Amino acid sequence: MKQHVPRFVLCILIPTFVWFAIFRFGPLLYALFLSLHKWSYWDNVHPFVGFRNYISILHDNLFLHSLLNTFYFAFTVTPLQIFIGLLSALLLDELIGKIRKGFFRSVFFLPVVVSGVGVSLIWRWLYDPTFGYLNEILSFFSLPPQGWLRSYSQAMPSIIIMSAWKNFGFYMVIFLTALQGIPESLYGAAKIDGANRIQLIKYIKLPLLIPAFTVSVVISLIGALQVFAEPYLMTNGGPGYATTVTVLLIQNTAFTEGNMGRASAMSFVLFLIIFIITLIEIKLFRKREVSY
Amino acid sequence: MANKSKTQVALYILLGLMTLITLFPFLYAVLTAFKPLQEMSFIPPRFFPEHFTTYNFKYVWSKIPIPLYLFNSLVIAVAVTSSVIFTSSIVGFVFAKYGFRFKEPLFMLLLSTMMLPIQVIFVPTYLVVSAFHMGNSYWGIILPNAINIFGIFYMREFIIQIPQDLFDAARLDGCSDLKLYFHIVVPNSVPAIVSLSIFQFIWTWNDFLWPLIVAQSNKLFTMPVGISAFAGFYAPKPNNYVMSAAIFEMVPVIIAYFIFQRHIIRGVTLSGMKF
Questions:
Q1: Using CA atoms, how far apart are residues A69 and A159, in angstroms rounded to an integer?
Q2: How far apart are CA A53 and CA A122, in angstroms?
Q3: How far does Cα A46 stand from its chain's mean position?
Q4: pLDDT tens digits, residue range A162-219?
């Protein structure tokens, strides 16, 4: 171990940090700077306005509504997709035979790899209240047709259902890997003690899955708070503003209205929210991890 | 034993149902793509096409420059992936095998950018890209994604496990640092490099918000951006065309998935990266 910095390390790290300065830290600071100015894309002068952008967006019902929509999406889709992912991992773990396991795993992972754009367009068509196939399936079970994406109250749940369908396979793989890591000997000992399947799941598998659970919650929330493509393509934020999520509103404010200052203030608030939520999650879950 | 087979049957029914739900949207999209326009307004909608047609694909092919969008997606995905592989492995190598001052805080600083995705800071990043005159160019789409902190983290975890003896022996033979990288790090981390490449390639291929913002003209559209522009929102195209377009967009990824699925799935399991 040398204490000074070797030249090779410098040659690698300097360009790396320059990149991070230009494309990550720089923009974050730049967002802060822009957010303190009245910065319209169409004007040449950008006067300093202090915290006026922040005060304005925090009094703007549409921005607050977009945050609520984003939270609604993130805090509903996260438990849903992690629960389905966990359930499918536990089911696959009960299966006998590698090939069968591999088959179901491949199928459930398929929606994860295809693009959000493709599946959003497919589901937009399935959800069509007049010509779509989902209402046809409902009518097969003698259920009344629904408005889905065209209904103010159902639009967000519809996007949530689609997202959970798209993403659960990702969490299934995280849980499956964790399950494979549990040593056989633990099961053996429990079986000798007369534990049944349910008890095995409850007392051995679930506690040992807590680290995988933590990772899943963190990844899912960070991702879900940035949701954009699905509402952009399926509802464009509507009906009304029922599915206007924050990234969609930022994109509109910046590139349709040209109001970069205001959009940057929104970005900065969103960044702070993601930052704080991540810190809380890591703190909360660290305590509950179990090792063996 | 009877009880055991009963649970197995229940298991298969449940998994079968989930398989159906997972595959149904894809199946219906494919069937829709083969339906003629008149069948789009059937009430109730029918599952199978009444008159099977391949016209929709020809229509989409004639209306939007699919080869151009494919080419753009390919150029961007190849460039981003190569750059991410190189930077991730060499920076990962530095953090895995060298000791230097402020190593830990520097690494933590890099890791903190995991909370700083381009989706959140796209407004200032766009202005930075414009200031460098890279707006509406390949560079503008590629450069802000040229390094992936998840990739660095992933490669570092992998390179740490390469035995130190290999490096010490090569060092005694007078190998330079760059030679260590090319002759020891790269050959010994092929599995990680393969997983990361495929993962990064698909992630870049599917990326939407950033290319949507940077690509101002359809000359630069990637597949997802081009397809979404074609599908429209306020005046949407008929769904038989939209489904054909969506299939053009998804098929390359699905093919790649079937060839490389083991690597892709391992990519998830080893790191916890996100699409």
A1: 11
A2: 38
A3: 35
A4: 999 999 999 998 898 888 878 777 777 777 777 777 888 888 888 888 888 888 888 8
Domain housing B201: 57-271
Q: Is B14 inside any structural domain?
A: no
Separation CA A184–CA B167 (nearest Å): 36
Instruction: Give the separation between CA B213 and CA A163, rounded to whole angstroms.
Output: 23
> Could you tell me if B232 lies within 8 Å of chain A, comparing CB atoms?
no
* Nearest neighbour of B117 by CB, restricted to A139, A176, A226: A226
Q: Which amino acid, one-letter code, is at B137?
A: S
Quick check: helix, strand or coil at residue A259?
A: strand
Q: Name residue B153's amino acid.
A: F
Long-range contacts, stretch B100-104, CB < 8 angstroms, 24+ apart:
B100/A2, B100/A3, B100/A4, B100/A5, B100/A6, B100/A9, B101/A3, B101/A4, B101/A5
Would you call B239 and A128 a contact, using CB atoms and an 8 Å cutoff? yes
Return the SS3 of B208. coil
Q: Which of A175, A280, A180, A164 is nearest to A223 (CA)?
A: A164
* Residues, chain B: 275
B177–A236: do the CB atoms touch at under 8 Å? no
For testing contact with chain B, the best of A9, A251, A276 (most B CBs within 10 A): A9
* Model confidence pLDDT, tens digit, residues B220-243: 999 999 999 998 888 788 888 999
**Within a domain: residue B39?**
no
DSSP line for A30-70: HHHHHHTB--BTT-S---B-TTHHHHHHHT-HHHHHHHHHH
Which pairs from B98-105 meet CB under 8 Å and 24+ separation?
Answer: B98/A6, B98/A8, B98/A9, B99/A1, B99/A2, B99/A3, B100/A2, B100/A3, B100/A4, B100/A5, B100/A6, B100/A9, B101/A3, B101/A4, B101/A5
The Cα-based distances of A113 to A72, A122, A195, B137, B274 in angstroms read 25, 15, 38, 26, 10
How far is Cα A160 from Cα A154, in angstroms, rounded to an integer? 10
Interatomic CA distance for residues A109 and B110, integer angstroms: 30
Find, among B181, B210, B199, the residue nearest to B81 by Cα: B199
Q: What angle do CA B122, A121, A134 make, to 5 degrees?
A: 135
Question: CB-based contacts of B172: which residues, under 8 Å, 6+ apart?
Answer: none
CATH number of the domain at B267, please: 1.10.3720.10
Phi then psi for residue A48, to 5 deg, are: -70, 130
Please say whether the beta carbons of A135 and B226 come within 8 A: no
Query: Taking CB atoms and an 8 Å limit, are B15 and A254 in contact across chains?
Result: no
- How many structural domains comprise chain B? 1
Residues A88 and A184: their CA atoms lie apart, in Å, by: 20
Residue B66 scores a pLDDT above 80: yes
Cross-strand pairs, A37? A48
Confidence of residue A69 (pLDDT cuts 50, 70, 90): very high
